[in-house]
Amino acid sequence: MADTSHQRFPLWIFLFLLLSIHGYSFYLPGVAPQDFFKATCDCNCLLFIKGDVLKVKVNKLSSTKTQLPYSYYSIPYCRPQEIVDSAENLGEVLRGDRIENSPYEFRMRVPWMCNIVCRITLNEKTAREFKEKIDDEYRVNMILDNLPLVVPVTRLEQDSHVLYQHGYLMKVEKYFINNHLTFTVKFHKDEQLDSARIVGFELVNGSDLPQEVEDKKEIIFTYDVEFQESDVKWASRWDTYLLMADDQIHWFSIVNSLMIVLFLSGMVAMIMLRTLYRDISKYNQLETQEEAQEDTGWKLLHGDVFRPPVNSDLLCVYVGTGVQFFGMMLAAMIFAVLGFLSPSNRGGLMTALLLLWVLMGIFSGYATARLYKTFKGSEWKTITLKTAFMFPGVVFAIFFVLNGLIWGEKSSGAVPFETMFALVFLWFCISVPLVFVGGYIAFKKPTMEDPVKSNKIPRPIPDQSWYMSSTFSILIGGILPFGAVFIELFFILTSIWLHQFYYIFGFLFIVFIILLVTCAEITIVLCYFQLCSEDYRWWWRSYLTSGSSALYLFIYAITYFFTKLNITKPVSGILYFGYMLIASYSFFVLTGTIGFCACFWFTRLIYSSVKID
């Protein structure tokens, strides 16, 4: 079993969101508002005078090859006299972060060369442990004053441009361990106080005298540290870490994608406005009964278009869940754009997403019960119960199985029982009651009246052309929404699976808005064509049309796995596809709800705009 004695769930988790929301009420002197959150996150950042002790902390061992994090002391590295674990928030525990103290200590602005940390004599077991981690290309992560250790890498084709990699490789070459570390601490000097702040923590990768890992071999761990004065101000010290991707390619791809999607969206909007205006004018200007009898198209469906669909309860549940997901994403995007969710606050984004999901339960219950009552439903308690448990239950079941696999690998990424209990507590004791409150409020409101009455006998649906079939329309409808996000999706997947920071939330928010517009427009267009072909079964098709973009997302995830990742272990592959299945399912719920709500508004609008005798 993995050592989880240090994994603690903080009692102040419920205060996190409140602190995040109100944290901008106060500003630090000399710090711009957009940089304030960086300051609040770096609460352990201090002014250091010459000779002050700087203590280096260690984080998890990470690998893009296995995607399984391990505690730093899971292998026989040099240990301090007493291992002290840092308090971790919910997001850090879920990410597999394990922050502990280390025997590495510096003196501020005092160079120190060839310091011996410890001597370790390997035996057969410890040598095997080192070799296994070396084979899996594990990297060691360290932290100084809340800044992660990075290794500068100069690109061959552009020597002036430096990229940074998180942590350093355990090996120098095959089975030769990186036992001598050369650290560079960058500082920004405060002339008035004769003190300095730490603005960079780098390491020259590759030991000058690497030692081979083998049985009964003594390995000496040493390090050098030098200090460099930097012009980078403390408020901007994270900029280096947040610019690790190729900026030119990223910006060009995003702008190109936005231009294409905006152009297509404008075309769709123009066609819809002109076509609808002509149809409504035509229908409202019919003068004789003969003209009305000769009419065809969407107006003939006024007696069936608002007939409740098959499995209407399930549709209500999915729509309510989608509203909850949309509220969570929108709030998280706004917080991220404003700078509240800086990567300097490790685990902050994941913690915020979980808390926002829980709080948005009230909107989920409201949307579900409101639509359910429109379908003349009466068992609002049952439908809200389904909403509160269906989607979270499916996700939790998949997560529980994946977590069991991580436990089997003795990885620090396994969620301990305490954290699992906290997740269940948030679900059952906060999210579920809020869903019921929302459902109760909605059911007390008057029923939404349909613009037109439904006939008792359903109208027969004529035979449809192949291009108007449900399968074809649904598959076609998901292409454009996926096209709006697939370029940004590449960078998101890279940040998750290749352990890079992602902080271009401004672009992400624009892409998110375009995704909403695209889902709404493409679903409305296909719904309009469907009604014109005298097929009134639009309820589920509108949801599946935009929701089918999740299928393309999962196909893209499969392609990314085989083209960009180097995962060979079966467990790691299962973890990847398991988490991507959860992501695709969530994307289906979100985009499907957007498309459905757009069509719901569209059909009510057009049928309330024409004269019905």
From TrEMBL:
Keywords tagged on the record: Endosome, Golgi apparatus, Membrane, Signal, Transmembrane, Transmembrane helix
Annotated transmembrane regions: 251-273, 315-341, 347-367, 388-408, 420-443, 474-498, 504-531, 543-562, 574-602
Keyword field contains Zinc: no
Location in or out of the cell: Endosome membrane; Golgi apparatus membrane
GO cellular component, one term: Golgi membrane
Topology term for the membrane: Multi-pass membrane protein
BP-aspect Gene Ontology terms: protein localization to membrane
PANTHER family in the record: TRANSMEMBRANE 9 SUPERFAMILY MEMBER 10, TRANSMEMBRANE 9 SUPERFAMILY PROTEIN
Recorded family membership: Belongs to the nonaspanin (TM9SF) (TC 9.A.2) family.
Protein name: Transmembrane 9 superfamily member
